[in-house]
Amino acid sequence: MAAIVRALDPEGPLVPPPAGVYSNFENPPNGNETMNGVISLSLSLTIIAVTFHICGRLRNKFYIEDYLIIPAIAFFITCHVFVYRITGTTGWFVHGWNLQRKNQEWHLFNIYISTTTYNVTLIFLKSAILLQWARIFCPARRDVFFWMCYATAAVNAVFYLITILIELLRCSPVQYHWNKKIPGGHCANDDLLSPLSAAINLALDLTILILPQRVIWRLNLSFKKKVRVSIVFFVGILCIISAAARLGFAVELLTATDYAYDSSYAVLIGSLELTFAFLTFSLPGVPEPFGALMRRTRSSLEWAGSRAGLLSSSRTLAAAAATTTVTRVKSEGNIYHYDGGGGEADERGLVPTAAKTSSTKLGFDDDTHELAIPAGGLAPDTQDHAILRTTRFNMSETVVADANVDARGVALPRQHPWEPLSSKHETQ
């Protein structure tokens, strides 16, 4: 078989075209836009959800599952890097008669690496989900549910490790996975490996979803927490649907004659399955940092609204002035009392509601001194950097005379300064 492959024309198509169809090697029809859209959406949702989850943990405490999610997201991104490599070269959803044999090596190499990193991602990701369930629903005890979660996580890790080793050792040498021109290379029959792996993967997803059901429906949860749990399990159901679809495509590939085209569906569904699994893990920790972000955003919007109102009020002050009369009365104890009068103003918006000039005269004589400060409007180009309110003061000051003032009005020192004035007047 290898000799036949080596003898084939490298410029020819991978599979013969159907009757009446001609090969198109220059610009073949493809589904790269669909694949790029789905992959980009998967990456974005996953990275955002995991980032929110990690931010929430940084404010509290890291657990074992939080450390497991770090290599999971790293292998997830690596998997999609090799998916993008195919998008930029041979393309996805391209029929085999539109692909040349010389490009087969590149296509199969990227498929092999992306499949391997997909399996490694599931080792860490599903283990993290199960350990998270055990911590959430068994925080202070180790019951049957706790040990079932840990046992399922161990089975998951062992299964995918075996799958990776079988796929690695299936071909000799390893490079024969993608380079079919190596002399003496051969691969064992693995037709059942892909559907078997997909079936066990579906069984593990069902186990992860079913395990906590008995515990959840016995809890007395508030409505808000019930909604949160419902959202998490709704995403888990989407993950199971994706795993079931991938199993269906894996079975179809057993009899597929156009592997390059049909395998594109399995890759697309596998990406969605990983995304839903990451969301299942991350959603329980998202509300806290997301709520803090929303509170900060709402506070910023309120500040912007108050700033706009302040600027609008300053423009109104350019055409009006507020007058406030302040009266200062000096008593014997050198205590000053201030009383506001005149126009009333709205302090929140700094918009005067009335403006009139008034003066107040207090005291025992007719000696009144008025200090008037004019209130002018603000220039439009200085409103943001100048005083936003100008006030006119009419102040009258009255000095209460006593026996210690001479004829010229100069205060004389008292004979007994330590005595209060009131007591002095009482003794006289």
Give the helices and strands, then pairings.
Layout: H1 2-7, H2 32-58, H3 64-87, H4 104-137, H5 144-169, E1 171-172, E2 186-187, H6 193-210, H7 213-216, H8 223-252, H9 259-282, H10 287-317, E3 322-330, E4 336-342, E5 345-346, E6 351-352, E7 391-392, H11 421-427
Parallel strand pairs: 3-7
Antiparallel strand pairs: 1-2, 3-4, 5-6
Helix pairs in contact: 2-3, 2-9, 2-10, 3-4, 4-5, 4-9, 5-6, 6-8, 8-9
CATH class of the largest domain: Mainly Alpha
The total of beta strands comes to: 7
Ends apart, CA distance between termini: 134 Å
Indicate the CATH topology of the largest domain: Rhopdopsin 7-helix transmembrane proteins
What can you see in these coordinates?
Belongs to the SAT4 family. It holds the Pfam family Fung_rhodopsin. The chain crosses the membrane at residues 37-55, 67-86, 106-125, 145-166, 198-217, 229-251, 263-286. With 428 residues, the protein is mostly helical. It has two domains: 2-285, Rhopdopsin 7-helix transmembrane proteins, CATH 1.20.1070; 321-427, no CATH class. Helix content is 54%, strand content 6%. The protein contains eleven helices and seven strands. The chain has helices at 2-7, 32-58, 64-87, 104-137, 144-169, 193-210, 213-216, 223-252, 259-282, 287-317, 421-427; strands at residues 171-172, 186-187, 322-330, 336-342, 345-346, 351-352, 391-392. The strands form three sheets. A three-stranded mixed β-sheet has the order 4-3-7, with no helix packed on it. A two-stranded antiparallel sheet has the order 1-2. A hairpin with a 4-residue loop joins strand 5 and strand 6. Helix 2 (32-58) packs antiparallel against helix 3, helix 4 packs parallel to helix 9 (259-282) and helix 6 (193-210) runs antiparallel to helix 8. The longest helix is centred in the N-terminal third of the chain and has 34 residues, at 104-137. It is elongated, with a radius of gyration of 41 Å. The N and C termini lie far apart (134 Å). Residues 1-6, 318-386 and 423-428 have low confidence and may be disordered.
